[in-house]
Design goal:
It is a multi-pass membrane protein. The protein is mostly helical. Helix content is 74%, strand content 0%.
């Protein structure tokens, strides 16, 4: 038996349904996994519990997975340490002396959002805390500030390979049925798929275009006008603004300098870039033909070393190195004591616990879905691939359906990580299977997989970006000091506009399996929206 057939649909369908109803992704994922364990155990609940615990434990009994787990935890520790130094405030004080207009303060907010890419939570709170005094001085609507914070949080985190978001995606992709047939590493797959992530890239671009052109529309235009007319930076009819948030909480914050905020980020980037090829070289040392790092470097090109790297190992080494160097740096700079530094790291790691739980369950439900009955799974990926391929389902529709469904799930649940866990193991084998059935070559096969998975990523990020129950949306309101309902109301038309343009892009991209065609359709739609929406909406 290769699969449990249609019974394999129960875990993902149950997970999605419960996520809609409960808005709790953890519980939904757990019950989805348990339902799969029940099916595998033949309806025996005791055996199902035993199977479930074994599957969860097994998901962490893997070198790749445990390194990813530790990377995410230590990244949280780095963010916790960074948040306690006062460096964000120091950067804000420096920026305040340079920025004297509405446009320049908004552009700096956008730039800082791109710079702080390692964590979406820290992005929203840190950039908001830094820039809010500056934007307030320049009479910028709090709603506009919140929109930029939100649009440079999740959309940026999903584009940069040195983030918990991307390493999670790579992990799920690596474990999905059909990935091995693509002939690329998970790191190479991600890097080459970045241009296909239409929604995230368009959202970042949209912020820049609106800031530079001033073509605001809808509730956002009205909030901006209200701020200019009344001098009040938020509309109290939407409710009270969140209290002032101080993420630094350090008596020594006055000692910090702007470089103190940039230092750990630069160290992380540099060390990651170094370790990506180094880990490949180290892995190629066999003690016989290749006996040293120099010999390993001579045996392959730098490009091959990057493409074949073990991303989990490289990023794990990079974050440990960064954490140690930053710990020493901040201690020497006397921005905190050894005791407060340890507390900051601990608090940061604790903040990652929900994400780590979701990540672990993502691996587990992926295993349940992918694995054959002989390996304790349902074989759903193989079943769906056979059904879809055998039914002649058009591959052109996979990206647009994947985007729409992922957007619906993520918007309804307020989380993207849970959506990644549900959708990628389903979409990957379908896209690969359909492409192989059509006899597509290696390049077209890879394009089909990349555009389909990127559609899942884009739809998932849309929900995290736009949903009123998303924690990132809530933290963006908090960081900006904007009433949450005002932020949701003003941002929604912008997020939906980007989503519709992206949807059209995936329609044409799915038909052609060409990223240039996808972008051409997306940008034409976006340009039309920027021309007509301010005219129509602002009447």
């Amino acid at each position: 038996m290769t699969s449990f057939g249609i019974w394999g649909l129960i875990p993902p369908v149950l997970t999605i349904t419960l996520a809609f109803i409960t808005k709790d992704v953890m519980v939904s994922l757990f019950l989805g996994i348990f339902s799969g364990a029940i099916i595998v155990a033949g309806g025996n609940p005791l055996m199902a519990i035993i199977n479930l615990t074994d599957m969860i434990a097994g998901s962490l009994n893997d070198g790749w997975n445990i390194r990813i787990f530790l990377f995410c935890a230590l990244l949280g520790g780095l963010v916790g340490m960074l948040s306690k130094t006062g460096s964000a405030h120091a950067f804000g004080r420096w920026a305040a002396d340079k920025l004297h207009t509405e446009k320049t303060s908004l552009l700096m907010t956008w730039f800082c959002g791109l710079l702080i890419f390692i964590d979406d939570y820290f992005n929203s709170l840190a950039v908001g805390t830094v820039m809010r005094p500056i934007t307030d001085k320049n009479k910028v609507s709090r709603a506009q500030l919140a929109y930029i914070l939100d649009s440079t949080a999740a959309p940026v985190c999903i584009l940069v390979p040195i983030s918990s978001w991307v390493i999670t995606v790579m992990s799920i992709v690596k474990g999905s049925e059909g990935f091995e047939s693509l002939g690329v590493s998970e790191f190479s797959f991600f890097m080459r798929s970045i241009p296909y992530n239409l929604y995230a890239l368009l959202t970042v671009l949209m912020v820049l275009v609106i800031v530079l052109t001033g073509r605001n529309f809808g509730p956002m235009a009205r909030s901006i006008a209200y701020a200019k007319e009344t001098g009040k930076l938020y509309n109290e009819t939407y409710g009270p603004a969140p209290g002032e948030v101080d993420i630094d909480g350090n008596a020594n914050a006055a000692k910090a300098k702007p470089l103190d905020m940039l230092f750990p980020i630069l160290v992380l980037i540099i060390t990651a870039v170094v370790f990506f090829p180094v880990t490949t070289y180290l892995g190629s040392i066999d003690g016989e033909t290749i006996t040293s790092l120099g010999a390993a470097a001579a045996s392959m090109s730098l490009g091959d070393a990057f493409n074949n790297t073990d991303a989990s190992m490289a990023l794990f080494y990079a974050v440990i190195f960064t954490l140690v160097i930053s710990y020493i740096y901040y201690t020497v700079r006397k921005l905190f004591t050894i005791k407060s530094a340890s507390e900051a790291i601990g608090d940061g790691i604790k903040s990652m616990v929900p994400a780590l739980i979701i990540l672990t369950m993502a691996w587990t439900i992926g295993t349940v879905i992918k694995s054959s009955p002989e390996d304790g799974g349902l074989g759903l990926a193989a079943f769906l691939s056979d059904v879809v391929v055998g039914g002649g389902f058009p591959i052109a529709l996979v990206p647009v359906i994947a985007f729409a469904l992922s957007a619906l799930i993520s918007f309804s649940t307020g989380t993207s990580w849970g959506t990644f866990a549900i959708m990628i193991p389903i979409v990957m084998p379908i896209a690969v299977g359909l492409a192989q059935a059509k006899g597509l070559g290696d390049g077209a096969l890879l394009n089909a997989a990349m555009i389909s998975v990127s559609a899942v990523l884009g739809g998932s990020v849309f929900g995290d970006h736009a949903s009123p129950i998303s924690d990132t949306t809530i933290l963006s309101s908090t960081g900006a000091g904007c009433p949450h309902l005002e932020h949701v109301a003003t941002q929604m038309p912008y997020a939906v506009t980007a989503a519709i343009c992206t949807l059209i892009g995936f329609i044409f991209g799915g038909i052609t399996l060409n990223v240039f065609v996808a972008w051409l359709a997306t940008l034409i739609c976006f340009a039309a929206a920027m021309v007509f929406l301010p005219r129509v909406y602002n009447k």
